[in-house]
Amino acid sequence: MGNCESSTHDKQIHPAKDIALPVPPHNNNPYENGNGDSLQSPPPHISDSIKGGPTFSLEPSAFSISGGTNPSGLNNDWLNVKDALNRNRQIEEQIMKDHRKLEKVIKLLLLGPAESGKSTILKQIKIIHLHGFSMADLGEKKPLIFRNIYESIIQLIKGAHSLGFELPANLQTDIDTFCLFFNDYQFGDQMEFPKTMYPVVKRIWANERIKEVYAQRSDVYVMDCAKYFLENLDRICSESYIPTTSDVLYSRQQTVGVSEIRYNYKDLEFRIFDVGGQKNQRRKWIHLFDNVTSIVSF
Ligand SMILES: Nc1nc2c(ncn2[C@@H]2O[C@H](COP(=O)(O)OP(=O)(O)OP(=O)(O)O)[C@@H](O)[C@H]2O)c(=O)[nH]1
Ligand SMILES: [Mg+2]
């Protein structure tokens, strides 16, 4: 059969294929035959077996690498090569390991202008995935919530002026009183709403002209949380007040720099980055783009 003949042809061209080379026992050192013999020159039976074939040289020179031998008889250069190969294999394994780990990390950036809700999303994630806010966390938000109320009132007063609204004389008295208070106010650990300011703030917010200012927020700046906190003034000004989760969600504090939260969901690790959206904060965004999986833009 033609197929059988072709094997004869193979034999003629590659006689070396037919040489039955002894299979050495498993041995990591190719310069040693497993019996402790150095293979710096080939075993005699290999060269003896090659008769009449094409050039098939296993000359000792083919095995010789300069560099001398160490006391165990092994070539030093070969040991260096072996070491380098081992190190290379370890590095490659580590790279693969890191790569597989990285595939399970979701790096998410929240990007957008100031007050677009980036930090609010972060707070919501904390509630859903990280056990929310403890009583201590909630209590700590009191000074911030008070400040949000003061700032809302100031913005409403400024808004009334810039819209050219005429305000009744009795309201003007309250406005003057509040402005005096606000001029001296310093943000700190204020844990109680000042009793004298409670009725003043309440009357200012109850005024119809001030409500009109709030309605015209497209023309004047008033923070989003103003209405929520001013409508909850009685509760917030009570002595036993402890902020609720909803209060914390509405509280507004400009982010400076970058904040990050991490959590695990199924077998994925989420890393969420919240940045400051003010113009002077945006140059910090560039440092976060390495290995980003997704961007949520507001
Ligand atoms: N209307 C409304 N406003 C909300 C709600 N939740 C939060 N807010 C307000 O939305 C605003 C979102 O502000 P942040 O989350 O601090 O905005 P930000 O994008 O982190 O802003 P910067 O840190 O300055 O970049 C706050 O004023 C909140 O009071 C909501 O459910 N409804
Ligand atoms: Mg923020």
From TrEMBL:
Residue numbers binding Mg(2+): S119, T255
Listed Basic and acidic residues bias regions: 7-17
Lineage top rank: taxon: Eukaryota
GO biological process: adenylate cyclase-modulating G protein-coupled receptor signaling pathway
Xref: PROSITE patterns: G_ALPHA
Residue ranges that the Swiss-Prot or TrEMBL entry lists as coiled coil: none
Record keywords, A-Z: GTP-binding, Lipoprotein, Magnesium, Metal-binding, Myristate, Nucleotide-binding, Palmitate, Transducer
Compositional bias segments (type: Polar residues): 28-40
Cellular component annotations (GO), alphabetically ordered: cytoplasm; heterotrimeric G-protein complex
Binding site for GTP: 115-120, 249-255, 274-278
InterPro entries per record: Gprotein_alpha_su (IPR001019), GproteinA_insert (IPR011025), P-loop_NTPase (IPR027417)
GO molecular function: G protein-coupled receptor binding; G-protein beta/gamma-subunit complex binding; GTP binding; GTPase activity; metal ion binding
Gene3D superfamilies: GI Alpha 1, domain 2-like, P-loop containing nucleotide triphosphate hydrolases
Residue segments, region Disordered: 1-53
Subunit-level organization: G proteins are composed of 3 units; alpha, beta and gamma. The alpha chain contains the guanine nucleotide binding site.
Name by which UniProt lists this protein: Uncharacterized protein
